């Protein structure tokens, strides 16, 4: 009986570890409210990629671009946290 429970417990732990590994490799993306910037983050919240909408880029101030980047990064990190709970 104890051996069976140990085996089942190990199997559950391995499935959980596999899900965590898979989640860490998944890229989660989000955009700012204006669609100027899209940011992709890893499951741990690390920023992996940033894309800027070239059609809008020339029409914004640098401070607005910076704000859009921060907004998109925070949104992507928030999504990553929600997905990996």
TrEMBL record:
This is YbaB/EbfC DNA-binding family protein. Residues 1-22 are annotated as: Disordered. InterPro entries: YbaB-like_sf, YbaB/EbfC.
């Amino acid at each position: 009986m104890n051996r069976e429970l140990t085996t089942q417990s190990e199997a559950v732990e391995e499935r959980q570890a596999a899900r965590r590994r898979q989640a860490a490799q998944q890229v989660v993306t989000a955009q700012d409210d204006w669609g100027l910037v899209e940011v992709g983050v890893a499951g741990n919240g690390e920023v992996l990629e940033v894309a800027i909408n070239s059609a809008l880029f020339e029409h914004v101030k640098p401070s607005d671009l910076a704000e859009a980047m921060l907004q998109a990064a925070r949104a992507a990190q928030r999504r990553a946290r929600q997905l990996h709970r």
